[in-house]
Write a structure and sequence with these properties.
Elements: E1 2-5, E2 11-17, H1 56-65, E3 69-70, E4 78-82, E5 93-96, H2 104-117, H3 121-131, E6 134-141, H4 153-175, H5 186-191, E7 197-198, E8 206-212, H6 213-240, H7 244-249, H8 256-266, E9 272-277, E10 295-297, H9 302-315, E11 319-331, E12 339-347, E13 353-358, H10 360-371, E14 376-383, E15 390-399, H11 404-415, H12 419-429
Parallel strand pairs: 13-15
Antiparallel strand pairs: 1-2, 3-4, 4-5, 6-8, 6-9, 7-8, 9-10, 11-12, 11-14, 12-13, 14-15
């Protein structure tokens, strides 16, 4: 390796080149550092909320929820709280019980600053609950641990994946009741999870999601009810051998998607639990238990959950629909005869795309509508097989008139996709 000499005669640690083509370089110590963007998974910290925006009773409830211990204090005036852990070592907090005394704001301010400077996950969880009033969902699993309480990467990844599946199943149930959703409602359901905050997983054994009350409470209520309904249906099946309880559980939000999520949560563990804690600032929603006991599932529940999931998948009926959509792909084996068409759904069904087989005349109409930038309308049956992505008995294909602005928008949207290339190649070689 060749080094560039410095003024003092010593070689600088900056390689100029090597005979094997390695042009890697090492930055000199005196060269200014370039700006580096933050790591995408690093938490975005904000200052703690102002004391006048914090209810002392809510702060006390959050401290108790996240394992802090009250160890005395002037009764009726303030309490002394110590962090969770063996012996409760660490900075204690003086938290007023109300705002009846002049020093209440000062004590609140000092407690909030101490929480923001603490490295404890319990302190972070309390600050999140104060900054965004949230219902909390806790997943916990009994899994084998490795050296010094560690867990394999895949174990933590399984927990996060199962937690997301659980939330998505609850989000789907807030939009409609069904034993099997497939692709229906999936895009808006997934979008509704954007505001959910997730805490750090503890060795693949515990994970907490903070769901903002303002936008996500219906989701948490639906999940709370669905979990209890699933637990009752499993117990009924194991006691009587009947699956009838799973039919009624659909109205509570139980579905193929939820049973799959529970299977993913419990598989490979000695047991798992899901618990809900309602936001202290918002209170307990009507019809829900307080406190909400954790719902437990064991490996012995897995055969019942799999049986219920397969039953939901098998028995969800197809549905008649009339869909308006833009043609994004066309394919057939020869210049004439029937062909397969794929539509991007604009209206008529809660799915993003569907495929269908059309006869020669309908295929020709769909191709002409696409070439002039018009969507088509078609009726048929949306089949549950394949996730409600296929339309059978398709017929009545007709172009839909739209104004020039919408027509131009559709043309530009379609031309931006790679699928349009395959379409034109086929159109040029066909009839």
């Amino acid at each position: 390796m060749t080094y560039r000499p410095t003024d003092d005669g010593l070689p600088a640690r900056r390689p100029v080149g090597r005979s094997d083509g390695d042009l890697s370089v090492r930055r000199p110590i005196d060269e200014p550092l370039r700006f580096a963007r933050p790591h995408p998974v690093e938490p975005h910290w904000t200052p703690p909320p102002a004391p006048d925006q914090v209810d002392p009773a809510v702060l006390g409830a959050l401290l108790r929820r996240h394992g802090w211990q009250r160890r005395g204090g002037a009764a009726g005036r303030y309490g002394r709280w110590t962090p969770p852990g063996p012996g409760g070592t660490g900075t204690s907090l003086l938290v007023p019980e109300n705002r009846a005394f002049p020093d209440s704001d000062d004590l609140l301010g000092e407690a909030l600053i101490a929480l923001s400077r603490s490295g404890s996950p319990a302190a972070r969880d309390v600050l999140v609950g104060l900054a965004v009033p949230s219902d909390e969902i806790h997943w916990s699993r009994d899994v084998p641990t490795g050296v010094v309480g560690t867990a394999a990467w895949v174990v933590e990844d399984q927990l996060r994946s199962a937690a997301r599946q659980t939330l998505l199943a609850a989000a789907l149930a807030t939009r409609a009741r069904a034993g099997y959703y497939g692709a229906r409602h999936r895009r808006p359901a997934a979008a509704s999870l954007d505001g959910v905050l997730v805490g750090a997983a503890s060795g693949g054994r515990r994970l907490t999601a903070f769901v903002p009350v303002a936008t996500g409470r219906p989701l948490v209520v639906r999940l709370h009810q669905a979990l209890y309904a699933a637990r009752e249906a499993i117990d009924y099946r194991r006691a009587t051998g009947g699956m009838d309880a799973f039919d009624g559980a659909v109205e509570a939000g139980v579905s193929h998607e939820l049973t799959e999520a529970l299977v993913a949560l419990v598989r490979g563990t000695e047991g798992a639990r899901i618990a809900v804690d309602w936001a202290p600032a918002a209170g307990v929603p009507e019809g829900c238990a307080t406190p909400a006991e954790p719902v437990e599932f064991s490996p012995g529940d897995l055969p019942v959950l799999r049986e219920a999931g397969a039953r939901y998948l098998r028995e969800e009926p197809s549905m008649p629909v009339r869909i308006t959509g833009a043609v994004v792909r066309m394919r057939r084996s020869g210049p004439r005869g029937e062909g397969t068409v794929r539509l991007r759904v604009l209206a008529g069904a809660e799915v993003s795309h569907v495929r269908m087989t059309l006869d020669e005349e309908s295929y020709r109409i769909a191709g002409h509508a696409h070439l002039v930038g018009l969507p088509v309308r078609v009726h048929g049956r949306l089949e549950s097989r394949g996730g409600f992505r296929r339309l059978t008995d398709a017929g009545g294909v007709a172009p839909v008139q739209v104004d020039e602005a919408e027509r131009d928008r559709l043309m530009k949207s379609l031309q931006e996709t790679a699928e349009i290339t395959a379409f034109f190649e086929e159109a040029c070689g066909g009839d």
